[in-house]
């Protein structure tokens, strides 16, 4: 199964960490937002569907607006 990956953004975080976001579309139409969290030499990759991305976005906005 092939996938099309489009770089979306990269964010510098405290303590030398970064998060990059990529849009991933599989040939069968399945879409994800891929988060890659870099902490030094360690990487964590998380694929979010649209529901999870919306819920996480709402949580971030709720916290940041207080």
Offer a quick outline of the entry.
With 66 residues, this protein is α+β, with helices and mostly antiparallel strands.
Break the fold down into its secondary structure elements and pairings.
Blueprint: E1 3-12, E2 17-26, E3 31-39, E4 42-48, H1 50-64
Can you characterise this structure?
The chain is an alpha+beta fold and 66 residues long. The protein has one domain. It is 23% helix and 55% strand. The chain is built from one helix and four strands. Strands 1-2-3-4 form a four-stranded antiparallel β-sheet. The radius of gyration is 13 Å and the shape is flat.
Distance between the termini: 43 Å
Name the structural class. alpha+beta
Task: Provide mean pLDDT, rounded.
Answer: 95
* Count of extended strands: 4
Q: Strand fraction band?
A: over 45%
Radius of gyration: 13 Å
Helix percentage:
10-25%
- Any idea how many domains? 1
Largest sheet: 4 strands, antiparallel
Low-confidence stretches: none
Order of helices and strands: EEEEH
Strand order of the largest sheet: 1-2-3-4
Q: Give me the number of helical elements.
A: 1
Mass-distribution shape: flat
Tags for this model:
66 residues; alpha+beta; four-stranded antiparallel sheet; 23% helix; flat
């Amino acid at each position: 199964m092939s996938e099309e990956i489009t770089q979306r953004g990269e964010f510098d975080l405290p303590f030398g960490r970064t998060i990059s976001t990529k849009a991933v579309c599989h040939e069968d139409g399945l879409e994800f937002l891929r988060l890659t969290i870099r902490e030094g030499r360690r990487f964590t990759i998380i694929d979010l569907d649209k529901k999870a991305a919306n819920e996480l976005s709402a949580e971030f906005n709720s916290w940041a607006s207080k």
